[in-house]
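FYI - complex with manganese (II) ion, inputs then prediction.
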Amino acid sequence: MKKTIAVLEGDGIGPEIVAESIKALRRVETKFGHEFELVYAPFGAGAYFTDGSPFPEKTVEICDRADAIIKGPVGLAVDKMARIPQDMRPEIGAILPLRRRYDTFANYRPVRLPKSLASFSPLKEGVLGDGLDILMIRELVGGIYFGKKTEGPQTGMQYAEDECRYTDAQIRRVAVVAFEEARKRGEPLTNIHKANVLATSRFWCEVAEDVGKSYPDVEYRSMLVDNAAFQLVKNPTQFNGVVLLENMQGDILTDQAGGVLGSLGLMPSACIGPQKGYVEAAHGSAPDIADQNKANPYSMIGSVAFLLEKCMDLRRESDAVWNALFAVFEKGYRTAELAPQGYDRAKVLTTREFGDLVADMI
Ligand code: IPM
Ligand code: MN
């Protein structure tokens, strides 16, 4: 298979962890006989300073031409961010426009922790049972993040407003993705919402349940988001299977799930639209540890596994990357943030060492 991939390295630890994910991709290329053409392009806070925009026109063109996109985390240290005007900050000026442009409505975030690695989690081992394998699916281009924003001071009024709207079509298409995944896995789907208060959540449930009528084989569960936050810590294995969330609630609970795993460095993410998708690490750019060769590249490498599966339909290749990631940990290797005090130093890996081992395992 021959594909063109746009590579947006991003800021902070972005370039380092993206480099390790590319190592894995190159190994897949040789082992399975594919050809990936990589085209690098500026994106993020650094791009604002070098190119005048966090999502420069030339990057847009490169992404338009690519079959898929690999994106590193974005954002610089607080003092540098303060010098960027609000609408040019990478969240508003780059990430949301990227999602909008490719209509990447389905955001997959896997929460995977085999029993053997339960010690990564801050939760007691007993709570993790036989391990976690949850696929969180978050709606990514609707709801309050994309609604009209009114800032009081600009209108002379002492208020601010964020509009939250969901249409039938927006809910339906992401619900279909979630039910399909649950069917493939033969596992339950838990729909999370705030239908006891929000109109958009009541509609969300109505449409999701309507979609569910076509999936009588999938066990459907419904849970309020505040309770879900509690349950995710108290008894997370009940979510093993697929979890469906709207945009903002999904943003919050996926980070919480990262906490349950023990590190956001363990949370890859794929954002998929009707024509193309991009993959990213679900965490930030950690400018405080940039260029020190100590960031955990797992999220970024796992994201490449997702790219292979969701953007190219290369299931075997994707599995090979996933298996390699877990195999490195199973051998007792740790990245710095996952190594407890006093852990065998010889087993604590740098960013590049981790990437090398994963490539070898592939
Ligand atoms: C994420 C991030 C983004 C989001 C931000 C950076 C806009 O937190 O991907 O989870 O809120 O979606
Ligand atoms: Mn987030």
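The chain has a mean pLDDT of 97. Residues 91, 95, 251, 282 surround 3-isopropylmalic acid (ligand 1) (CB under 6 Å).
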